[in-house]
Design brief:
mainly alpha; single chain; 6 helices; 0% strand
Length: 140
């Protein structure tokens, strides 16, 4: 079988499953790299396998660092509205040989991740509610 480039593989993936934007795949690949650097190496100094839950945490951290308060808007524009979508993207890339998996890895690993509003909006909400003008003390 002839090896295909990342871009060619994305063309094949998107022809089969057009739900997610091309940029979504590039982002997940970058988020995986970020996660691997964050969690470190195994005892032999090799990059260790990342679980679905670890990847979800790394995706959240990387997305917030890249897109800030616009994170949820960017993800929605790419067709990503829940953690399961990240799992679909990962397993599409596994199917086309871009990523590898172990026999324990499943799409279900991404099923019970985090709530998108909680994960991507809450960090940018004020920590306390501002008082309304009628609650402001009057000045003499």
């Amino acid at each position: 079988m002839q090896e295909v480039s990342f871009d060619e593989a994305l063309d094949l993936i998107r022809a089969k499953d057009p739900r997610y934007a091309r940029d979504a795949y590039q982002f997940v690949r970058e988020a995986l790299d970020h996660t691997q650097k964050t969690i470190g190496k195994d005892e032999r100094g090799r990059v260790r396998h990342v679980t679905g839950q670890e990847l979800l945490g790394g995706i959240r951290e990387y997305a917030l660092s890249q897109f800030g308060p616009m994170t949820i808007t960017v993800l929605e524009d790419w067709g990503i509205v829940r953690c399961q979508d990240f799992g679909e993207i990962v397993f599409n890339m596994v199917e086309f040989g871009i990523l590898a998996k172990t026999e324990k890895d499943t799409r279900e690993d991404f099923k019970n991740g985090y709530d998108f509003k909680e994960a991507f909006r809450k960090p940018y909400l004020p920590s306390h509610r501002l008082s309304s003008p009628s609650e402001e003390p009057t000045r003499a």
